[in-house]
Amino acid sequence: MSDDKKLARASLDSLYRIFTVPEAPDSTLGRIDQSLSQDLAGFLQQHIVASERDLADIESDFDSAAIPEHPTFVSEQIQFVMDKLVAQSVHISAPSFVGHMASALPYFMLPLSRIMMALNQNLVKVETSKAFTPMERQVVGMIHKLVYDNDEAFYEHWMHDRAHALGSFCSGGTIANLTALWAARNNALPPGGDFRGLGQDGLLAGMQHHGYQGLAILVSERGHYSLGKAADILGIGRRSLIAIPTDNRNKVRTDLLASKCDELKRQNIRVMAIVGIAGASETGSVDPLDTMADIAAERGIHFHVDSAWGGPTLFSSTHRHLLKGIERADSVTLDAHKQLYVPMGAGIAVFRDPKTLTSVEHHAEYIIRKGSKDLGSHTVEGSRPGMAILVHSGLHIIGRQGYELLIDQGIEKARAFAQMIRESDDFELVSEPELNILTYRYVPADIAQALAQAPESLQRAVNEELNKATKRIQKIQRGLGKSFVSRTRLNPALYDGDDIIVFRAVLANPLTNTEILSDLLEEQRQIAATRDDVKTILGLARACFRSC
Amino acid sequence: MSDDKKLARASLDSLYRIFTVPEAPDSTLGRIDQSLSQDLAGFLQQHIVASERDLADIESDFDSAAIPEHPTFVSEQIQFVMDKLVAQSVHISAPSFVGHMASALPYFMLPLSRIMMALNQNLVKVETSKAFTPMERQVVGMIHKLVYDNDEAFYEHWMHDRAHALGSFCSGGTIANLTALWAARNNALPPGGDFRGLGQDGLLAGMQHHGYQGLAILVSERGHYSLGKAADILGIGRRSLIAIPTDNRNKVRTDLLASKCDELKRQNIRVMAIVGIAGASETGSVDPLDTMADIAAERGIHFHVDSAWGGPTLFSSTHRHLLKGIERADSVTLDAHKQLYVPMGAGIAVFRDPKTLTSVEHHAEYIIRKGSKDLGSHTVEGSRPGMAILVHSGLHIIGRQGYELLIDQGIEKARAFAQMIRESDDFELVSEPELNILTYRYVPADIAQALAQAPESLQRAVNEELNKATKRIQKIQRGLGKSFVSRTRLNPALYDGDDIIVFRAVLANPLTNTEILSDLLEEQRQIAATRDDVKTILGLARACFRSC
């Protein structure tokens, strides 16, 4: 039997070999391993979608739930993976893929990921991670410092503290937000008298003890969907996540936020958290964090900032002022797999006060024992990989200056793209890029002109047609596989809160340039001009004006 | 500047290069990449801990929270990683590391992990994953079939269904348990009348609408600590996770389980879930799942099985009968990063009824839109990596027969180890290995003999000394770095429920053999015989008898 390690005649002997690192680099497995690196290198420089097979067709490659009885050769499976998965995946690292929060990765992340995978440390406890535990604590400390910038003595005291955590490293922003809101909820209903705390006695007992009629979380209508999910999971209910309207720059209306807080207080509903956004998923906008911090502080409310996207703006001397007030937040979410440029999935929640996470602390007999330095005592997740090694490496190899360049070039590129859209006579900028995200739509000059002068009810009818056109153009462009923008639905003040479907562009990939962006617009223009379905829709929009 | 890509004079130009795949395999970065593979291969075959530096000392390498201002050479950072992290990590893949749920990995996982990392797909939505979405759905379907074994038509109908999910792929068992209990909680308080469901209106409104005094989750005292955490997060409270006593084989007492259900019902407390365990973390024991399924079915209670560890026992024709009844569970947790032998972190929750997860379904405007096939609409997490590719590959390359061998050899090895302990005159087996986990402790023959005849109060005093000895021996052996068993605290019927600290051995690594296990016992014996602190403790245990 070759060392391709087929288990066809499955035996213990062949099984042992499959678990052993091949010593000869020219063994079959060694060769597969090396050639893969080169294939991938070439592959990653191609287009966004290598083939135009549609999803239903691709599903036929993955249609059996039967677990194969007999083992397959490694080389066969790798071939399947290359043909059926790699070739049918989305090249989110392509410079023309500007539709989601994705980017090319620094190449050094690959060998480092391999180290991480090979060591397979489990960060739930020191016994299965050793140096990875202090390393992750340092990474959490560094992000804490990026946000709160405390002095050296603070970190010397707390960073490796046995009983406390400056934050919680996790698989992504959703879990980071959940962690922060979990702690906020438990702290909002503290123990006292017969009540042993929400963690022990539950929500119902906590409400009764404190005499509240309900709990609420307040965030702008641009809040990430993970907050609604957290409200559901935490037992608050999605309807207690209250959406505060935004101004014409997609920032929360702080006057309405403050008055809602006071209204809820009169109703005896405890606001357990106010959530500020630093880099909204849809528009990249940043809330007025400093004013929000005032509102929260005056009322003794936990202030959480979701900077999953925008947090790394703090690296930039030019732009960090946009996040002014974040340093007053009780907790902050930041995604490393977004603008720290590490692979999926790495998120972090940091807490200003090292004691905040105490309300969610937990222990077990065989791991995360009291008094241990095990990280698992303050996390939503249990067993976790050592992803922090990639963040540690990014922070060192790229450094603050490198991240500053990355942030600055993204914002500049977004502004250049916005200018391109503004200067065109057939595109309309719907939201300005405060950071590196903008939204826009295709509106031919004649329609734009007529729309500006039309009465409100007519505007609505025309916008409905334009929404259909935007949706079609986005789908067609995605299908062509050359460029990709995403789409979403906004209610901009510009159209009196009408639902407007927009293209959404995220300019985070340093390999994207203005030529690529110009080509992207040109392709959308071409789709609008040549595709019959889009032409029909635009014709219907024009007909709206005539029928008046 | 070399292609080592230092950003020392950080410039946009050097930044672009760092994000580009090196074309020449003999470039500096290409060479680093290749030599790392070989270094790692050698490294992974060494001892458990490469150095005996203690944690406080290691922390000094990770003591600064300052983010480096200037970029570092890739080669410098890799050297740091090799010296300070790799060399100080725990070799959980070593055959003598039998203390936690860890193992060597099949080597093919490494090149496949590289593909996964390089593609960096995000499985929250089809737009950033394409073929990875149907692939993950297939993997979930395969695990569903392993557990529930429905017919082909069932999977043809449901596996790729737009609006439903057969399960939820996630970062690990903790999130899988949380997902299952989240759905169970929401389904326990269904919408009706003015009540729009727990997800919308929250726990308080749900309890009021249904007129319950409380909610409860029932599990044996061997339940995993993630269940307590889930009870906290979900707002039920840890005290509503009710621990049912176990029999002398560490299985839940189903008589007590049934009577507790009925008692709670009389108190108007709704049992939202009964949790069965298939492979308890501490003892590897399996609950009588079939009887539990009866109890749950008779009372209309959600039955969840936590088979994070034991699930893959279903691959074994010889041992799958132990899990009889799991196919009647409403939801089942299984960890792929445990006995499917993939790296951290990959867990799955599967649901018998494809409609169970509907109660936690959620959507957003820019992703996971209604009607899309986006996986993110039924998961606790948001953005997620394509770990399912590793499970898909394991299931194909190893196959059912391969996994059967892995399971069988683990159970046989555990039995052989148990026999070795039974035959020795200085070790005591505390829990028999039903699967591949056992617990034991060091009790010299003279103490064992005296203990057997001692009255209860004296037994307790002696056991307290023996507990100290077990704890010391475990710590010393861990520090020596040759072998590793973990320790936990049990209350076996053997000692009338006294707290007994035990060594815990998990026999899952196929490279572990009986010689290694024999050496491990011999080392513990030597520690007990030669270390003064252990000798002193054992002396105190002996003194207890004399002082009577």
UniProtKB/TrEMBL annotation, chains A, B:
Keywords: Decarboxylase, Lyase, Pyridoxal phosphate. GO terms for molecular function: carboxy-lyase activity; pyridoxal phosphate binding. GO terms for cellular component: cytoplasm. Its cofactor is pyridoxal 5'-phosphate. GO terms for biological process: carboxylic acid metabolic process. The modification N6-(pyridoxal phosphate)lysine is found at residue 338. PANTHER family: CYSTEINE SULFINIC ACID DECARBOXYLASE (PTHR45677:SF8), GLUTAMATE DECARBOXYLASE-RELATED (PTHR45677). Belongs to the group II decarboxylase family. This is 2,4-diaminobutyrate decarboxylase. It comes from Pseudohongiella nitratireducens.
